[in-house]
């Protein structure tokens, strides 16, 4: 006769907070097809991907991706996933 064994408990989910990188500059370009923006500050440029979960605000007002225009000032908080950066910005 076999007895049932309980499976090993699942490993606890990591509660380590995701480290966000902050970058401030002006939006150089917006790519609607790739859902990304390029933000430039002096000699440095960074490209950020935008997802449906990305929060875009201007002051207390919530904006849509389509509202972003070249020349706007942006403060981007992003997390890096491989070589891509995913944005939350104001």
Give an overview in words.
With 90 residues, the protein is mainly β. It has a single domain, classed as Copper binding periplasmic protein CusF (OB fold (Dihydrolipoamide Acetyltransferase, E2P)), CATH 2.40.50. Helix content is 0%, strand content 47%. It is built from no helices and 7 strands. The protein has strands at 21-31, 36-41, 44-49, 57-58, 61-62, 73-81, 84-89. The strands form 2 sheets. The protein has a 5-stranded antiparallel beta sheet, with no helix packed on it. A two-stranded antiparallel ribbon has the order 4-5. Strand 2 and strand 3 (44-49) form a beta hairpin.
Q: Can I get a quick summary?
A:
This protein is an all-beta fold. It is built from no helices and seven strands.
Q: Could you give me the name of the CATH homologous superfamily?
A: Copper binding periplasmic protein CusF
Broad shape: globular
User: Which residues form runs of ≥5 with pLDDT under 50?
Assistant: 1-8
Termini Cα gap: 64 Å
**CATH architecture classification name:** Beta Barrel
CATH class division: Mainly Beta
Taking Cα atoms only, what radius of gyration do you get, to the nearest Å? 19 Å
Biggest sheet features? 5 strands, antiparallel
> CATH topology, anyone?
OB fold (Dihydrolipoamide Acetyltransferase, E2P)
How large is the share of residues in beta strands? over 45%
Strand line-up of the largest beta sheet: 3-2-1-6-7
- List the domain count as a whole number: 1
| Average pLDDT metric | 81
Question: How does the helix and strand content classify structurally?
Answer: mainly beta
Number of strand segments: 7
User: Can you write the helix and strand succession as a string?
Assistant: EEEEEEE
Count of helix runs: 0
**Could you estimate the helical fraction of the residues in percent?**
under 10%
């Amino acid at each position: 006769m076999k007895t049932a064994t309980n499976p090993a408990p699942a490993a606890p989910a990591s509660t380590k907070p995701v480290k966000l990188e902050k970058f401030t500059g002006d939006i150089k370009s917006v790519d609607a097809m790739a859902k990304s923006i390029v933000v430039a500050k002096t000699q440095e440029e960074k490209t950020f991907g935008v997802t449906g979960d990305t929060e875009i605000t201007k002051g207390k007002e919530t904006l849509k991706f389509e509202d972003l225009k070249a020349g706007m000032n942006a403060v981007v908080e992003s997390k890096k996933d491989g070589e891509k950066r995913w944005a939350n910005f104001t």
